[in-house]
Amino acid sequence: MIDLAKKFSHANIYFELYHHRAIYTNEDALVVKKEQGFTGTETKSLFLKDKKDNNYVYLTFTTKQTDFKALGKIIGKRLSIVSSEHMEEQTGQKQGAVSPFGYEEQIPIIIDEELLSKEKLVFAPGRPDQTMAIKTIDLNKIIQLLKIPMFLMPANENNNHQTK
Predict the structure, then answer these.
(1) pTM greater than the 0.85 cutoff
(2) Which of 15, 20, 132, 150 is deepest in the core (most CB within 10 A)?
(3) Percentage of the chain with pLDDT > 70?
(4) Which family does it belong to (predicted)?
(5) What is the span of the domain harbouring residue 102?
């Protein structure tokens, strides 16, 4: 994993980094968020693959169900979630602490378009004991900085968002 804090600092990209006990579930994340006092929209990153084992990351709301058919339409390939073992072997990350970006190889990211209307996004930067928050307006800067191929999941393609 690339040290995102270091990379963002050098590029003058605003971020907040929080250190806390390990988080692996959305329920734990909500408790830690309250304890730490950080703000922003909680996200989840799903580590996906196609039939040829090409990897992708899907960044969406923690409470949103994933429409794999819609994702497949965007990429032009059928996608599925990789096994925990495969993901750990390939990225060193545990399920529940997957980063949306910062990998040594350029893994394409699919971003839920609805996230773009939020002020700040909160995610695990590849470690279960850290949380990072970024300004959503900096997302394109980050994608360009890391040279990641990006796809957008149109809001009308995935309308299963439940707010909590």
Answers:
(1) yes
(2) 132
(3) 95
(4) Belongs to the PRORSD1 family.
(5) 4-157
